[in-house]
Amino acid sequence: MKSQINIGLVGLGTVGTGTAKILLENRDLIARRVGIPLELKRIVDLDVTTDRGIAIPDGVLSSDLPGLLTDPSIDIIIELIGGYDTAKRVMLDAIAQGKHVVTANKALLAVHGEDVFAAATRAGVDVGFEASVGGGIPIIRSLTEGLAANRCVSIVGILNGTANYILTQMLKEKQEFTDALAQAQAKGYAEADPTFDIQGIDSLHKLAIMVNLAYGTPVNVKEVFTEGIAQITALDIQYASELGMTVKLLGIAKVHDGDVEARVHPTLIDNHSPLAQVHGVYNAIHVVGDAVGDVMLYGQGAGAMPTGSAVVSDVMDIARNIQRQACGRVPPTSFPENQRIPIRIRPMEELTTRYYLRCMVVDRPGVLSQIAGVLGHHGISIMSVLQQGRQEGQTVPLIIMTHRASERSVQTALKEINQMASVVSQPTTLIRVEDEER
Amino acid sequence: MKSQINIGLVGLGTVGTGTAKILLENRDLIARRVGIPLELKRIVDLDVTTDRGIAIPDGVLSSDLPGLLTDPSIDIIIELIGGYDTAKRVMLDAIAQGKHVVTANKALLAVHGEDVFAAATRAGVDVGFEASVGGGIPIIRSLTEGLAANRCVSIVGILNGTANYILTQMLKEKQEFTDALAQAQAKGYAEADPTFDIQGIDSLHKLAIMVNLAYGTPVNVKEVFTEGIAQITALDIQYASELGMTVKLLGIAKVHDGDVEARVHPTLIDNHSPLAQVHGVYNAIHVVGDAVGDVMLYGQGAGAMPTGSAVVSDVMDIARNIQRQACGRVPPTSFPENQRIPIRIRPMEELTTRYYLRCMVVDRPGVLSQIAGVLGHHGISIMSVLQQGRQEGQTVPLIIMTHRASERSVQTALKEINQMASVVSQPTTLIRVEDEER
Q1: How far is B276 from chain A (nearest CA, A)?
Q2: What ipTM, to 2 d.p.?
């Protein structure tokens, strides 16, 4: 029987510092729960001088990565350096040394997760990644254990706090996208390079991980349609509001006759739906299961302490497994390797949903009829049309809400509409609409 | 190595039927996830004839409880008969036979949980009770595992769907309590005897279970202040609405200098707080941890399938433990027995909070001054006063919002106010106010 469990932490950035703080400051509580002390024995970072505002015991922090990876006393390695190459090498090396690994690295897991999971399964070690989706929200455990009796009908999530903060500012302060982004950066909610957040790539990574767990299928992220929020204007958000709706960047997954539909894009949702109430940097994931009905988990999707909370929960889980020699008790993807069945990701053209279209048109009689004609020709039926303000001969927005239509038809129709140079002055903005529950 | 795990179910009522349906209909998915089939081998109920609308295999359903309890092939027994005596006996007998147990019985666990948990720990078997709080919401796992790295700052929950449905009807349809209750009964949301739901006792049981898990302390339910919703009127809800607030029946637990404050009562909360958006039969639990910040879990708090989903998740968890011989991996209360430390439940008189008071007073000059005088005399300062409608000489409601005051002072002052027979025509209604987050 071990007298303590030794932990190595690689990467003392924001989340690494939060993780170390929790392991150090809540050490007694953690030991009480787990029944054995968890010792943060080594921290490795290139920067060993900057004061992170936490009391790291002498001799713990170094830049000696090989020393950590080969230290036989270390049971669990926490990877918090981010990125693909070094992070993957750290994880695979740690696994090869028989160590359990914990990570918050959604990009790595979404793209190279299969390699990491397969190596861990072969080595009989655990991989914890609760922190990879939704920060401190216990969504990974909920998908793999708490809701495990359910056939997953759908997962719809606000998965990126930066994008949600920007959309919230655009709604509440009537800011334009670039101003809201600048403010998010000033507040430290957005990184200097915000590409992953605003282009939906971070949300894609998180959605891919959840689809993997919920449906027991490997996911090729390249097959998942992904669109960011940069083309959304304050005007769109204003019109949405008048229609009783809110724009959110959503990751959406649903089953359809054995296929899985998976996509990330700005989405109009009803103001009364629970996700519409999720503002600022908060994340939320709404899961529908065939038995449980709908469940939503809500919380801070990023930040040192919330993400650290999830990292340490995994460390505690693995510590409980180590004591009972039960590592691998829940496989990384929650399905044993031989029970995972590849499922087809339905191509985006096969989607049918409702659409919000903002056409920038010249304000003169007959224009609506021309545009409606194109839509009708492609079998797209109009639910409502809104044109506010009259400026004869000027460009004005024409807002069209469609009934349910196919993505393929809508894209073809929009191509035609956008080519009507005498009528349409700039490319039409399209926002997909998500009906409650479906 | 076992080739399958055998399950016995006691009690084929609403939740029992939902549980059986999930085990039968999602059998393949469950086996894929757990890596081994889970066989619903025996179901015991006094009624073996009523058609429950599920295809129970021949020979499974009987009224032979002793036969089930002593069947050596049964690994896990699910107790879904409810109540105290028989349920407790079933659980203790099953545990004595070395069987793992799963239950949705919050009343039993809140009152006799210590006996059940101690017996299970001695016998080295697992007790699953995810279904005891919040129906299908994975809150038990979140407290014991997902948020386990946190010192729990507070738990605030809408824990009873019946009460929440009634309050929602009173708000949205402007119904009075008795009408809303009758409607809840007609819709099957409230039982013929709704005492436990509307008097807050069911919420108390659920709160006690969560406090036990979050703080590692046994809880004596008699020490937890509990007040129901029967005295709330449509008028109170209307006034609350004018103040930008909503009335919810909440279970509240917080730490204070080593004490735990735990209470159940109707509460005024800000319309913008996430719990205010939880309507109808939904439940939600808002947890604040020192690391994770605030997290909320939301879903259907009752019903055959949501509750069955939680029951089966426990069965799957135990099946995973059985295969790895890791039963007891997470102790029932999440703290090993020797790490549980009794914590004082702070008596209600020591509470300080804000109050909404509705005094039914005779409408004549000087009345407000008299009432304000009594409050001032007891050190209770008034934040706002609202008196709508004038009916000289008639009884009218006087709505007083106080600043933060002590429960002891408020109760003493109310006693005095209620004795002012020439001014006050009926006992004053008091509703405590919960400020955001604290």
Answers
A1: 11
A2: 0.95
